Amino acid sequence: TATDGELEDRILAAKRTLGDRVVVLGHFYQRDEVVRHADFVGDSFQLANAALTRDRAEYIVFCGVHFMAETADILSRDDQAVVLPNLAAGCSMADMADESSVAECWEQLQELYGTAPDADGRVPVIPVTYMNSSAALKAFVGRNGGIVCTSSNAATVLEWAFARGQRVLFFPDQHLGRNTAKAMGVPLELMPLWRPRKALGGNTPAELADARVILWHGFCSVHKRFSVPQIERARAEHPDVRVIVHPECPMEVVDAADAAGSTDFIQKAVAAAHPGSTFAIGTEVNMVNRLAAQHPEHTIFCLDPVVCPCSTMYRIHPGYLAWVLEELVAGRVVNRISVAPGTAVDARTALERMLAARP
Ligand code: 13P
Ligand code: SF4
């Protein structure tokens, strides 16, 4: 097997040969050995924008997970190829909402609330999907008057949706939906979790009658691990600690933290702090460790004392990056992510609504 040094040399050599023909994009959760080769590193919103603007490259090699690469394909030019170095890099949360279950839910909600707008022109339900979802679901949302959000713009997007709809169906991440709507003042009792009729017996009519946000059952298995006792321990051991968590964490964790925000928000909060600050961070451990290395002036540690990696993000091993780049040098595009044109058109509508939504 190739050593880390050999892989590094192969990646550098292939990138040198390809020059401007390739751009490597990397999510903050990628391991250091991959991030080092990225031309742009960002959160999922910034990476979607990067796919729109890096239009000189023939190839976009996306070091992240499948739904991010699909989004890059939808937003990039048709003659650009998006490559995901390892096709097994998915997202378990994105997999928690599939097209047919969402269609079943949508049908039930339409049965219950009808389809006619109210006196202010607001339709009964607006579907909102988190970026962490398949292209098929982004297309579903695009076709049904809805919108995509990321963790950095969820509040703006919910405001957009409430201006056009009486209520919102939010999927797949219940925690991002609940945390964001709660911060906007929506009472918890108006945010039921949707239960499919056949499998789970459905919701009671009372639960749905006054609902403002209908939440899907999805969650992130990485962020679900963070807990209030971990925050209490961090505060006991470091009285000056600032606890910052990702909004995919459960509500009690976000409530007990000092701040919650996207991966980019977390980076910026750390960069803006006075030297000598202490941070306990509730997000993926590769990013937390890199932040700690980049900021020796602070004390930075992951809230989860064991380890909290995103195992699918970690599937982008530098060996895969070397391989796909060398194939491009040889004129072969492997692991291309290509969203079917009919799906891409509707998904792009939903993504463009997000990109245009303003606070
Ligand atoms: P960001 O949008 O904050 O980059 O988060 C993406 C993600 O998958 C978090 O788990
Ligand atoms: Fe998906 Fe969670 Fe990994 Fe983000 S951290 S890519 S939500 S599994």
TrEMBL record:
This is Quinolinate synthase. Catalyzes the condensation of iminoaspartate with dihydroxyacetone phosphate to form quinolinate. The keyword Iron applies. Binds 1 [4Fe-4S] cluster per subunit. Keywords: 4Fe-4S, Cytoplasm, Iron, Iron-sulfur, Metal-binding, Pyridine nucleotide biosynthesis, Transferase. [4Fe-4S] cluster binds at residues 91, 220, 310. Belongs to the quinolinate synthase family. Type 3 subfamily. It catalyses: iminosuccinate + dihydroxyacetone phosphate = quinolinate + phosphate + 2 H2O + H(+). Iminosuccinate binds at residues 27, 44, 130-132, 151, 246-248, 263. Its main location: cytoplasm. It is found in: Cytoplasm. GO terms for molecular function: transferase activity. Its EC number is 2.5.1.72. The gene is nadA. Its cofactor is [4Fe-4S] cluster.
